[in-house]
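Posted in: Protein Modeling Q&A

I'm a second-year student putting together a small comparison for a lab meeting, and my supervisor asked me to include a predicted structure for SgcJ/EcaC family oxidoreductase. I've never done this before, so apologies if this is the wrong subforum. The sequence is pasted below exactly as I got it from our records. If anyone can share the structure token output, I'd also love a short note on what stands out.
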Amino acid sequence: MPSDDENEIRALIERWAAAVHAGDLPGVLADHAEDIVMFDVPPPDRGVRGLDAYRETWPPFFRWQAGGSSFDIDELSVTVGGDVAFAYALLRCGTPEDLRADPERRLRLTLGLRRDSRRWVVTHEHHSFPLSGADPG
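Accepted answer (user: helix_wrangler)
Welcome! Here is the predicted structure, written out as tokens:
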């Protein structure tokens, strides 16, 4: 049975994903630490650091998504240990054409969280897609 913390974090992530899907920037930023570090699919390769830099990454994604793209949680796991937690998820993220061409492709999401003044905040966010057709060796 999930703990209260696990349920709280799951709800936080589901709210965040719904805000991303809706293009709701204040909702996307809610529950993120001022010192967040994010590694994303598009550049910069060294990631972004701080809430202001994180904020700047979203408008281009919202413009792309406005063309009918999906951003839906398919699978979510949360692990809590004291005042820190991590979660990982798979999301359906792509245009209808992308998802028809490769219906099993998922965006991989990993989040690190910490308890901050009795609430959970996201301190690390990592998004990635698997390389398609890459030679592993």
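A couple of things worth pointing out for your meeting: Strands lie at 32-39, 48-49, 70-81, 84-94, 107-116, 119-128. The helical segments are 4-22, 25-29, 51-65, 96-101.
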